[in-house]
Amino acid sequence: MQFFFDHFFELTITGLALGSIYALVALGYTMVYGVLQLINFAHSEVFMYGTFAVIWVFTAFGAGGHTSTGGIIGLLIVSVFAAMLVSGGIALLIERVAYRPLLKRNSPKLVALISAIGASFALSETMGLRDRITGFVGLDKPLADYVNGARDNSSLPVEITPKAVFKIGDYSVTTIDLLVIITALVMMVFLDRFVRRSRAGRGMRAVAQNPEAAALMGVNAVRVRQITFLLGGMMAGVAATLYMIRIGTTRFDAGFILGVKAFTAAVMGGIGNLRGALLGGLVLGVAENWGSAIIGTQWKDVVAFILLVVILLFRPTGLLGESLGRARA
Amino acid sequence: MSDPSVPKPDQGMSQTKLPRIGIAYKRPKTGLGKKLRALPKPARVALVIVAILLVYALPLLELPIITTPDSDFAGVLFTMSIYVLVALGLNVVVGYAGLLDLGYVGFYAIGAYTVGMLTSAHGSLPFLVVLPIAAVVAMISGVLLGAPTLRVRGDYLAIVTLGFGEIIRLAATNSDWLGGAAGVSNIPSPPNIFGDDGLFQIPHLVWHGAEPLIDLSHKTKVGYFGVLDAVPYYWLALTVVLIIIGADILIKNSRVGRAWEATREDEDAAELMGVPTFRYKLLAFAMGAFVGGLAGALFATRQSFINPQSFQLLLSMLFVAAVVIGGQGNRWGVIIGACLVVYLPERFRDLADFRVLFFGAALMILATFRPAGILPAGRTKRAQKLRAELTSLEEGTSEGGANA
To answer: Which value does ipTM take for this structure?
Structure first.
């Protein structure tokens, strides 16, 4: 308990940073849920592919201990776009392979969930077996830097050292904390504006409210779905970059637990609700940090789920309610 | 479906106000079922007994193509029967009551850990006492989890149960009393009441090409639970499976089974018709947990060693996959699903590293091409027919509504 009070500001700020990453991934869950009323179980893999995209960009440019700060910043900017590209692409692939055939046949929800679980297994194993798979086409030697140690942890080749910027209480807020939180907030605002103001966003909200009426009004449901998956994937790509800046290590199965957390955040905030995902993510991140300080790090995940159950008991539709479709603005 | 009762009016569909448009209110029988039903009763009973004996004898027959070459076939069969048990229990929750439970592994773990606690770590109660205790403890945990969470609907339930499964695993990892990350070891096997030689011994078969020979050097001791021979464990698990199938048939055709069906189809309509839906959902949850705990207890006894790694969240996904692949709501379907989920990876061990990859792809393909599962539930077929007729009515084409 004393530890908690001594490190209150540190726990809160790092919790917010962690929560921002959860929130960005949660957006993908919440948008797909808003439009399709389906849990996109494979979204965690979208995130995982993004983290690898970041590592591969650094490897491709031959980054190492000698790389200057400016070089790292440049590479980070490149890798954000690479991660967005890769994650968005994977998300579109999931939509095409795991969802569209089912939606055409009007399958029950549970079947779509199974299909997504299948896609999740297949994607994560493809990454975990990338050395063997590239071996089939004889590319494992030339691509050795990218595919070796497929089942082990992969890390960024450079170490990103945070610099202290200013103090809150007795905790020095670092550049990384600021970068993560501010990037996440900017992306959120951008996405929120997009969904509320743009033509495509209006289409998304229309489909979320009433797919049939939207179709009658000329909204292309397939296009809307694609945009939804793409946007969710791009947000996961940004989250992946931020995650690599903060954590620096990933693995072929790293998506799973983060995906579960992000989905928890989405549900906590009210699934289908973009602002809810942000709030849910931040609350989850901070609560985890506080909880692990009070009752021990090993109970971190337990705190997250118990908080979820408590919130759902008192607010059965999450903190802000479900409302991608409900036209408030 | 072995449903001997007279065709009952279909609760779920007939209570909501749907036009009666020439739907026969009885279960449409598949070809096989029809032929079976046409047989005289003694022949039917004999057929069932022969089939059951065949299933019991499977590990002794060592059939050339079916047997898994790279792992002990009896062990695989044991795992299969455990998964069948799990699938039957989960089918009550997912298939009958329509509640998506993604944390079923939690109950499985509770069953296994109860056995571990009471027979090895903190006690030495006999197996036959512990087995029901484990199932009851799992059932109580099901009620404790269900009572607050079953009020939330649909997908929220999925995430809450997912969290539950993870909490159980983390609690086991972090609590020293539960063995911590190292787990519990030295869980005793069931008592050998017939001594070290068992009741009697049965030889296995050995195949030379297509010709079976009796292999006198390879015998299984009936009633002797050793470390090496998994066959007696398989028989034990299979016996439990048969009992549960019997209970499943009885409850599905009872008032309770119909109440579940009504709740699943339309919760509000069922509530209006006087079905206390919450209580029935809780009952489904508790029963599912009971069977899950039983399966976990059997698993722990055979394994003699459990740790939190044995209860990964992915296992829950596998369980749900087994139920959905087989055909949720159809008990024979989920049995097939569970067997496939265990058997296919074991049979094709040559592809060991690629197992999960192929499994994932297979899930997607199955979901696309057989969305109702390998053996769809009878109700699903009825509902599809009804929906087709309703659509044709709405569209005004006269063919569908001609016999209205």
So the answer is: 0.82
